[in-house]
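Pair request: fold both.
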Amino acid sequence: MTASGKNIRVLVADDSALMRKMVGDIISTTPGLELAGTANDGLECLAQVKKLKPDVVTLDIEMPVMDGLKALARLMSETPVAVLILSAHAVEGAEATLLALELGAVDFVTKPSGSISLDIEKVRQQLVEKVTMAAGVDLDKLRNQRHKKAEPAAALARPPAQGQKIVAIGSSTGGTRALAEIIPKLPANLNAGLILIQHMPVGFTKSLAERLSSRSRIMVQEAKEGDIIKPGLALMVPADYHLTVDQSGQMVRLNQDPPRFGVRPSVDVSMESLAASAKLPLVGVILTGMGHDGAKGMVAIKRQGGHTIAEDRSTCVVFGMPKSAIETGMVDLVLPLDQIPGAIVAACS
């Protein structure tokens, strides 16, 4: 339900009548949710949003007349509404899904078996949770983050100090946009290796890493077993794996141990492993996201003598993970997103 106690009204936009029916049934049979209507293409979606004024739109990307990406761009500029993308494919649709997140979609759910997923019930819980979360998002934060030019952080002119560090950045809902605001602003000569832990399904982390790398002065790549953490390189933890480090504190180890608090990769797992090795000074950063993953990891980094930074509520799409970290009392700085790149540079100098 919404904060006012009313049902969350959802518009389902999909070119498949079967998918409209199946997703609509999930919405209709869930307490607190209400099916406001349906649309079979992007143009009809625009008209239905104006007419029905739903709280949330579930939006397919591949649709006739006007596809989901064009409809999303129009929605965010003309009639802003919380949009949850229903992505038909993982690897094949990753680029389009990531672009949708940049355009202002709150989050996405991957259909289990392609465009027509008769097994859509498999993602019922995830769909309901994300629709509910999307209904409470401040749309201005999604609109204001679009298409900003990545200007260098203020401290970039300084040469790097001696002594390599490691920066671990954890994020979830809204994190792809947040990382796009931070990583391209970091200098090529940053004297730190980075570990990026973003909650995402299989098939998306490699594309996200490549997308960030193409815009950044440092290299970003999906982490592999045996990779070495080193300056000028950001390693994105692959989906469905936890990342730890060996006793040297710099060699990457990947595992599929059980999810921590329902997520794999887990921010806590990576941060705690880095802190336990304690071979290099650490900087921990927690960005926007649901839940409390990363709070224990930030405590571990702080107790090891590291520096900790959390994103301020004012710029978070979802103020869950940063809030939990701040409540531990172990966060040194709480900053809006645009100040975090400079704080990372300062902490590594």
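--- second member of the pair ---
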Amino acid sequence: MVSREFIQGLPKAELHLHLEGTLEPDLKLELAQKNNVDIGQSTIEEVKASYQFNDLSSFLAVYYPAMNVLQDSEDFYKLAMAYLAKAKENSVRHVEMFFDPQAHTSRGVDFAEMFNGYYRAVTESEERFGISSQLIMCFLRDMSEESALEHYEMARPFFDKIVGIGLDSDERDNPPTKFQKVFEMAKKDGFKLTMHCDIDQKDSIKHIHDVLHVIGVDRIDHGTNIVEDQSLVEYVKEKGIGFTCCPVSNSFVTDDMKGKEMKELLDQGVKITVNSDDPAYFQSYIANDYYELAKKMDLSQEDIVKIAKNSFEISWISEEKRAAYLAEIDAYVEAHK
């Protein structure tokens, strides 16, 4: 069994991280008081007690209302900086962070107000925490493609500050092809593409097929149902398409962290990675996700190191940076022999 200490110190990248999902109870309370937002809770214990859910729908029912405390640029900056401090404790060297503009503009927050707060944290992350960071703008799939297109245009002045475009939220009756037009535009504009293919959804395999063959993504978020179709597994291996898996969050929204599927894909040479998803809600930051998966599946040190290397190999960074991070992992492993 790989030790928690080894995993904690292992250099890693985090590629599936929703900034809005890093809202810890203490910061939620602080921002609620600052902005005079009645959240129905007055203590950290009460906020923690409200973070209860047993599937994706019940999670989202808690998740979106919590965002009401985020009002101005400083709030978004504080949220991102609080996450980056936690990421440093988990030996994260590079992070690609999702943000959901529609969740904020729909409550009257200006796009630039939200974006500038997040981006200010990006500009400070290297110097403050030794972490390189990038932003991925996600569309909410339970909203219309027209809304996604509208927000794509809102983001245009900030295109040079966004690395990729993603798709998240409730997948039921919201297939990837619903957003084909906006993702075609994003691809033409040079963005990297990723989409959530949540676990055990209706039409999971069809959605994964369409994400790969119709949309043409560079990565898939979650996506472990791909094991049900070996031809798709062979395709992602050939193309080097990676998966951003989240074992602890899986175990909250279903009865299974999908460790068996992750190990099967890892053994086949698919570039799976481990990430924390919404760590404030699932009470697990990335090193703990690694540890819980290792414990459940009895992973070897070699498996864990491979997952960490995968995280840099499928990151949207320069080859020079990638080589430096991989060398850092090798040096860490050598020092812990």
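Observation on the second member. The longest helix spans residues 111-129.
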